[in-house]
Amino acid sequence: MLIFSIIAILMLATLFASILLWDKGRRSFILAVRSLWLHRLRAFLSVLGIIIGTGAVISLMAFGEGSMQDALDDIRRLGANNIMVRSVKPTDESNSSKRSYIAIYGLTYTDFDKIATIPTVTRMVPMRIFPQEARRGYKSVNSRVVSTIPDYMDIHNVEMKSGRFLVSDDEVLLRNVVVLGSELANRLFPFENPQDKEVQLGTFFYKVIGVMKERSQGGVSTEDVNLDAVIPIATARARFGEKIFMRSAGSRSAEKVEISQITLTVSETEKVRPTGEIIRSILENHSKSDWTVNVPLDRLEEAERAKERYKMLLVLIASISLLVGGIGIMNIMLATVTERTREIGFRRALGAKRRDITLQFLIEAVVQTSVGGVLGIGLGLTMVFALPFIAETFWDARIPAKVHFESITWSLTTAVAVGVIFGIYPSRRAALMDPIEALRHV
Amino acid sequence: MASVLKIIDLAKVYALESVMVYALKGVSIEVEEGDFVALMGPSGSGKSTLLNLLGCLDRPSNGQYFLAGQDVARMEDDQLSDIRSRYLGFIFQQYNLLPQYTVVENIEIPLLYQGAKLSSATTDRCTGLARLVGLGNRLDHRPMQLSGGQQQRVAIARSLVNDPAVILADEPTGNLDSRTSDEIMQLLSKLNEAGKTIIMVTHENDIASWAKRVIRMRDGVIESDVRNDKPTVAIDGDTTTLQTELLESLVLNRNK
Questions:
Q1: What would the mean pLDDT of B67-91 be, rounded to a whole number?
Q2: A16 and A105 part of one domain
Q3: Among A346, A347, A354, whose Cβ lies nearest the Cβ of B77?
Q4: Is B109 within 8 Å of A439 when comparing Cβ atoms?
Q5: Residue % of chain B over a pLDDT of 70
Q6: Interatomic CA distance for residues A183 and A215, integer angstroms
């Protein structure tokens, strides 16, 4: 796309350079600019369509691009080569009336081992995630325990603020160590360095070995990832077991889940989807539908298709508004040609050929639409920079906007093209006038 | 003197609906270099048609037309444009200046269509001509800031810029009061003295009296063709300076 805008810029530059370096063209250009300046209001009104059209395209493009980019970034953060397999609590069922009900569902280590045999899977990170109160002295925070293996760091783009992440020895030796999310660390240790301090999770104490940097929310998830407490999965199995009791809103529930989530990386992007299919077929034999396979690549491509559709829509809007703008230009050019019939006559008498007249009026049309295009770009950019600012100051809302360089070059090119296309008919009409008739015109 | 313009049996027929209108019914004129011809006649006499034909703005239905040795009667539109820009200068009743251009830029127009490269030399020529017609201190003015007489002077300078073989003037004083008309006619007369060939359409006898030759037309034919032995002449009759100035300002063109 960039190459196209470079070509477009070069073409525009050549066009204007050849007009300005060529004497007849330069005189016509000067005449056009002076005529525009002479009839400022009329010129402004006649290019208003172009101005608004261009401005709308630039700003809509920027706002659309901005929000789409946000969504795409969210998905990309999950990794295009990754597949997320999650345990889902089944939405049944009749035996919910049982008093001591323990929900048993989800992925098992057997599933994990089966999935590990797929050759395209290069890395697997199992996670056992459950809510748990984290305590430090009298302070307690509703936290989320993420028990996992050291590879979690890579696959979830964890960066450390201080200390270290899990290492494989932590797993082997069942160490009671924890890595805190930034917000959790803040709440438990508001005034001290948490490094090497102890935090209580369940009935055991865990030594803080590091604090993660703040991470942005993964889009759809409602949990605050910055409240995570990451511990080795082997430790979690040994200390918490697979049955987890939870108290919430006055009721107690328990569930038995072996693995909450497996994030796995596939060797090549093309193999992501087939691998997802294989995993699905492996998990088909669960008696309940207690799992989901989430392929970010699908969502990424879907979002990209949505983006393309949005672009197409914008192109449509742009073409309609530029068509309207072009008709405005044609209208005013036809009026100009009639108004300046005598000028056409005496120019012909003074030696102008038909094509000289055609070019003169074409240049005028192009100058008008280019001025309109430039003003429209100004309007669009103003909106792109002013609206988010206003929204942020008055409503505290964030409007993501991203100005696309291409949208600027394209709207300018289109404005010039509109000038040429809608200028042709009036210019031809001017050129085909009989010089004698034109001279006699009052 | 050599003839610069020669028409033989020139005719023009217009088809108006189903009626054929014979605007010009076989006119033959030969104009010599340095002549000053007044073309007169009532409206409908064919003098405008003749001027349009002489100005290469129209093509005759019949007959021959030689301008500066070239047969232009059957030329294509683009070729006629070339002939106009090379051999003809036009002066109109309504001056026909571009309001957006300055005096110098207006004078420059014919050079553009001649395909000349604009340079400091061409600008010098245009300012020289502006001085020649007495507008040396108005070079950067726009036509709107000038009086009618001054505007017509700009038009005269413009008609000279391509050093034409013939200057065609269509009622050059038609929009001016008598005093300004007099000034313009003096200027034309001086230019003629300096060697320029002028053909002028007019319907006023005292304007025609400046010319050396008066052709009267009626109903598409020449009624009379009289040499005026005692044309009105410019009062401050020092034409030699003008002549040298003119030659100097046009020297660029000659060497082209």
A1: 89
A2: no
A3: A354
A4: no
A5: 91
A6: 10
Nearest to B112 by CA among B99, B126, B133, B100: B126
Q: Are residues A68 and A109 in the same domain?
A: no
Residues from chain A contacting residue B162 (CB–CB below 8 Å): 351
The angle at the Cα of A222, spanning A127 to A224, to the nearest 5 degrees, equals 70
Q: What's the pLDDT tens digit per position in A39-58?
A: 788 888 888 888 988 888 88
* A323 part of a folded domain: yes
**Phi, psi torsion values for B30, nearest 5 degrees:** -125, 125
Q: pLDDT for B173-223, tens place per residue?
A: 888 888 888 888 988 888 888 888 999 998 888 888 889 999 999 888 998
How many domains, chain A?
2
Task: Check A350 against B92: CB less than 8 A apart.
Answer: no
Provide, rounded to the nearest whole percent, the portion of chain A with pLDDT above 90: 9
**Could you tell me if A279 and A130 lie in one domain?**
yes
d(CA A343, CA A438): 8
CATH number attached to the domain at B32-60+76-254: 3.40.50.300
* Domain contains A233: yes
- As for the ipTM of the complex, it is 0.87
Q: In chain A, which residue's Cα lies nearest the Cα of B95?
A: A346
Co-location of A96 and A202 in the same domain = yes
Residues A278 and A153 in one domain: yes
Report the C-alpha gap between A71 and A199 in whole angstroms: 36
Domain of residue A214, residue span: 89-289
Which pLDDT does position B255 carry in this prediction?
Answer: 42
Task: Count chain A–chain B contacts defined by CB atoms under 8 A.
Answer: 73
Q: Of A23, A343, A435, which is closest to B112 when you measure between CB atoms? A: A23
